[in-house]
Design brief:
With 369 residues, the chain is of the alpha/beta class. It contains 15 helices and 16 strands. Bound molecules: 3-phosphoglyceric acid and magnesium ion.
Length: 369
């Protein structure tokens, strides 16, 4: 059993380290970054407030970006610390954990550093619970520990989707990289009734069907994997039209064959309508990854249509991942889906394996019998 906040005993007067995932989207110049979406910060508030209300002193810690073990002002926690101070006055926030190489290498010396002066540990960093990093797996080795409310809810919802889905279960996948998602695509192919594939990753699938993709994103080393999947029994829907830029950089609509020099940046209107129909027909739908470069209004329509279908379908809807969650919020459908996961990679890995390093670490904590 993963220990819950109640399993920490009396927290009054205790100093509690809350490992959160405040890896939020940021924009602006390197020395003056601003938060684009504070969803992940707000999502940690139930846990932070639960502890504060019971008299604990809360110290939060998170990573931000991938600074690769070196201090880098671009990834400073300062903007997040300011936002946290507005949302939860009096709560502290450590500097970016990944400024120390010991975080990602899970160095015991770094674990000791972050738990010095700490009485209790709470993991509420669902989005990072798939990383065997120092702050995720280290503290529960020695400190009484618990899962925060966010981590708990994520595991309940995704567990239900994985183990007991209402069918048909549709997985809508997008985003740039297939290589990040191979494991989960393989695992999901045993669970889902159909895949809908858009976003940057669809071009590697189109290339695997020997279609010309121009200068679109392509992971050459994943073509064989895509081909294998296409030849399997899995029901897989790919775009039938594409929008993007032609060789002169002008907005253009294409079929599935892209001319030389063209770059696909979103699914086309026909594909968006077809994908929406499949979403409407599902009884459970999991969506991870945008359908195109939605930050640019010219290439936002595919993602917007999928987001709208997610909001309208009667299916049980789960959206995983920072980008898809940001897209939902941008289009105003955040409140119209059943669950918005704060984890991208973590939700995929949980769906794949049914467990995460952060969860198994908590199960081994000294307060668990
Ligand atoms: C995320 O946003 O995916 C999580 O915060 C984990 O970050 P990472 O992919 O850099 O480990
Ligand atoms: Mg990630």
């Amino acid at each position: 059993m993963v220990p819950q906040l109640e399993d920490l005993g009396d927290v009054r007067g205790k100093t509690v380290l809350v490992r959160a995932d405040f890896n939020v989207p940021m924009s602006g110049p390197d020395d003056g970054r601003i938060i684009v979406d504070d969803f992940r910060i707000r999502a940690a508030l139930p846990t932070i407030n639960w502890l504060s209300d019971r008299g604990a002193k809360v110290i939060c810690a998170s990573h931000l970006g991938r600074p690769k073990g070196a201090t880098n002002s671009k990834y400073s926690m300062a903007p997040i610390r300011r936002r946290l101070a507005e949302l939860a006055p009096g709560v502290e926030l450590m500097e970016n954990l990944r400024f120390n190489a010991g975080e990602e290498s899970n160095d015991p010396k770094f674990v000791n550093e972050i738990i010095s002066g700490i009485d209790l540990y709470v993991n509420d960093a669902f989005g990072a619970a798939h990383r065997s990093h120092a702050s995720i797996v280290g503290p529960p080795r020695t400190l009484p520990s618990a899962a925060g409310r966010l981590l708990k809810r994520e595991v309940e919802v995704l567990g239900e989707l994985r183990n007991n889905p209402k069918r048909p279960l549709v997985a809508v996948l997008g985003g740039a990289k297939i290589s990040d998602k191979i494991g989960v695509i393989e695992a999901l192919s045993k669970v889902v009734d159909s895949f809908v594939i858009g976003g940057g990753m669809c071009f590697t699938f189109l290339a695997a069907k020997s279609l010309p993709i121009g200068d679109s994103l392509c992971e050459q080393d994943q073509i064989a994997f895509c081909r294998k999947l296409l030849e399997s029994k899995v029901e897989l829907h790919l775009p039938e039209d594409i929008v993007g830029l032609d060789r002169d950089g002008n907005f253009a609509t294409f079929g599935v064959r892209l001319p030389d020099g063209a770059k696909g940046l979103d699914i086309g209107p026909g594909s968006a309508a077809a994908f929406a129909d499949i979403i409407m027909g599902g009884r459970s739908v999991f969506w991870n990854g945008p359908m195109g470069m939605f930050e640019d209004e010219r290439f936002a329509a595919g993602t917007r249509t999928v987001a709208q279908a997610m909001s309208e379908t009667k299916a049980f809807t789960v959206v995983g991942g920072g980008d898809s969650a940001a897209a939902l919020a941008q289009f105003g459908y955040e409140k119209d889906v059943d669950h918005v996961s704060t984890g991208g990679g973590a939700s995929l890995e949980f769906l794949e394996l049914g467990d995460l390093p952060g969860l198994s670490a908590l199960r081994g904590a000294p307060n668990v019998n």
